[in-house]
Structure formats: structure tokens, C-alpha cells
Amino acid sequence: MNDDSLEVRQVTVRFGGLTALDGVSLTAPPNQVTGIIGPNGAGKTTLLNVLCGLVRPESGSARFAGRELLRLRPHQLAGLGIARTLQGVGLFGGLSVAENVMVGATCHARAGTWPALLGLLRSDRDERMLRARAMAALELVGVAEHADRMPGTLPYGVRKRVALARALASGPRLLLLDEPASGLSEQELGELGTLISALARDLTLVIIEHRMDLMMSACDSITVLDFGKVIAAGTPGQVQADPAVTAAYLGIAADGGEAGAGAAGAGEGGAGEDGGRPGGPGGPGPAGGGAR
């Protein structure tokens, strides 16, 4: 497709004898929020790592705006308009908030290394441009007043917004969010949902999250993974009512008995996923955690 759609087709990833993704396909259209959910060990973050060039799949394809992604390196993504946040904040403790966000905009810098080192005029113009982009991103996420503070002095919820601003400073057309709600309070969660919906008006947005209250309210469509396979896809209401999703999360089969594989946790080895299982799709999941 030639619009800003993300098209994933039959992606398979194996780590030794473990199949982390098994023929996964999904479509994320522009100007919508596409959610990816599933118990820990389902393959969600592995899928993002594939899209970002951090994991090479055994087979399949992934295209954004008609461009194949699976042959690209991570450093090439910003130039294509693709940005990603991490589960944690990943901020540089020795840089101010504004400087951290400026790092995300460096793909737009025109001066090379030598002009920057020599302090030439072109480098000065770049710095002013990068700071302007950083301030605009901080304003967008509502934390511009903290621009000159150090990240370590800020509450965790504010630091999460700074990390989001850093991704937005690159001017992405595709934004990948990896558990942006982890560690947030209920009030911050509601504010994040409003922000995510607003951001999706101007780009393609894909989100992984365990907080089901956020996903059910913010997503236009949801794909559910369990042990590397797509077990359901549709609107939040359709997914919430799907017996296969309930079985995957709670280990309860449609007939009321115990489900098989869905009840057990499984790690993803090289993908770094732990073996716990979050709360079911009908209610909030845990606020934090490093599960993927």
C-alpha cells in the first residue's frame, strides 16, 4: 500500500527451539490507534523488535507506506518517519529534559560532525532548530515547563512523557509505543489515553499495553497474540467478547473448563519476556512490570 499503513504479513520468528512469532499478520491504518495485546510471552515486543530491525524474522514481510522494513537497520528508521518508545524511560541522566528531547530530533540536523565541533554558524542554526522542535514536542505532551530540569528530579509519570516527546521530536509518521502506561497513576492513565487519541489524528499509531482500560478506550482496533499466534482481531468490543481471548488471559475455556496453553506463562528467551500473566481483557491489567 502507498499510504501510511503498516502491513505485517506472515512474520515468523524463532529463538532456537522456541517459536516467538508464528505467521503473524496485521494491518495498522493511518489516523487510527492499533493495539496489540496478549499475556506475557505472547510475542508483542518481539513484533516491535522485528519492525525496528532489532530482530530478523525467519520469514514474512512488513511494509510501511509501501516500503519494506525487514531489510533496514535500526538507524535508518527515523529517516523513514518511524519512531518508538521503550518500556522504561531511557533518558540520559546527564542531559536536561530539553536536551534529551533534542536527541530525538537529530535526524533533521543539517550540519555534520565537523561544523558542530568547530561551532560554525550552520551548527548554531541546527541547535536552535533542534531546540525549537524539542520545545514543540514537550508542549504537545504537556511538560514544557520542565524543559530545563534534569530527568532524575522529575516524577516517573513526567519522565514517561519526556520519553514520548523525544520520539515525537523526530516528526514520525509511524509511532510505536511499548507499554507507555506502565507505572502511571489512574489520573495519568486517563490523560495518556486522551493524548494517544489526539496523536493518532496525524500519524499511524501502534501500541502495546497491559492496561486493558486504556486499550479498550483508546484503540480503534486490537490484535491479540498468544504464544506467538494471532488468536483474535477486531474492535475493542469484539476482542473483549471473544472466548479465545478470555481463555488466553484467564485459562478458562469457552465451555467453562480450563484452557490448555493459555493458562501457562511462557518466556520468550531471547525476546526477554517473562512468564507471568496479566489481568484479563475485561478489566485493568497491572500498572507496571517489565512484561512484553
CATH-assigned homologous superfamily of the largest domain: P-loop containing nucleotide triphosphate hydrolases
| Average pLDDT taken over every residue | 82
- Span of the ends, CA to CA: 29 Å
Order of helices and strands: EEEHEEEHHHHEHEHEEHH
Main sheet summary: 6 strands, mixed
The first-level CATH class of the largest domain is given as Alpha Beta
- Assembly classification: single chain
Strand order of the largest sheet: 6-7-8-3-9-10
Write down how many β-strands occur, each being a DSSP E stretch of 2 or more residues: 10
**Poorly predicted runs:** 113-118, 258-279, 283-292
Strand content: 15-25%
**Share of helix among residues?**
25-40%
Our Rg estimate from Cα atoms comes to 19 Å
User: Into how many domains do the coordinates divide?
Assistant: 2
Q: What's the tally of helices?
A: 9
Explain briefly what this protein structure is.
This protein is an alpha/beta fold and 292 residues long. Helices cover 31% and strands 20% of the residues. The longest helix has 21 residues, at 121-141.
